[in-house]
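Data card: per-record layout.
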Amino acid sequence: MEYQSLFLNSAATLVASLLLVVIVRRLAIRYSIVDHPGEKRKIHLTPTPLLGGVAVIVAFAVGLVLVWPELMGGYLLPKHIIGVLVGAVIIGVGGALDDRYNLSPRAQILFPILAALVVVSSGVGIEYISNPFGDTLHLDVVNIELFQYQGLPYFFTVFADLFTIVWLMGMMYTTKFLDGLDGLVSGITVIGSIILFFLSLSTEVFQPETATIALITAAAFLGFLIFNWHPARIFLGESGALFAGFILGVLAIISGAKIATTLLILGIPILDVLWVIVRRLFLEKRSPFAGDRKHLHQRLVDIGLTQRQAVLLLYALTAVFGVSSLFMQSDQKVTALAVVGVTMIVLGLFVVWRYKRK
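The structure for this 358-residue chain is written out next.
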């Protein structure tokens, strides 16, 4: 693995991201694709351009083209990379349409589902889950042959493919729901990508191809974060919020099904999303897609933290749990996940207590 070439290509991706954000921001302003303040759940005070995710996705694609020679010849096949790129484009198109026309939740969900299906069809999937307390759980035990192409059979691996789709959808909607403060999703994606970069270079995993994609992802989102830091001059929009979870989910799969590591990186947001969905469905009897101001990151602002303080706190939690996973065995990660759960409960109770006192 040539580190000099990797870092030069990542720097080029960063520059491309910066330039693309400037261009996309101007186009969003020109065509009035902006997020207007006014709804109770929105905390920005001035109309802010959307479509930021389009710039990130294009920068990511540019980065992949630059590192394409380094990706070939390893365990990743061209169809895997093409599948990820096509999935990213689908998310970009769907997100741009939503930013412009404010699609209904039913229409919005079609694009991430299609993106997940494309990734699975390209051969990217979770074939097994490591069990720290026993034998590995294999998901590729039931295969249905769909067709043959040039003598090669293509299968629908029932449990593996369904689990992969659910995993990617969960990751995408976690970052979608998390996107409520300036710089939050883009920064956490940068942190998560860098952690997965180092994980991929570890002796246990050593997958330089995955490390390359992870660093390209970090560079693409870092270029955007410079413009998205509070006060944000552009928002990720639907495409960027979904793409963040999409690419982190894909990186977790191709790095050897490192699900536990990614759960530690996004543990707090995932638990927040699960609680929000349960509360909306079973306690408030309404759609889980109906927005409100009861997410953890919004509550942190409501109890008196500034946007930057709330974001930095969540950055710190992401970094602490994510970095710690690099030094843990599988059984230790289970314990760490339990610690994440306890941390979320304690933090949630503290926020509710402070909010009621205020």
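Known properties of this structure: The two ends are 55 Å apart (CA to CA). Residues 3-30 form the longest helix (28 residues).

See the next section for split statistics.
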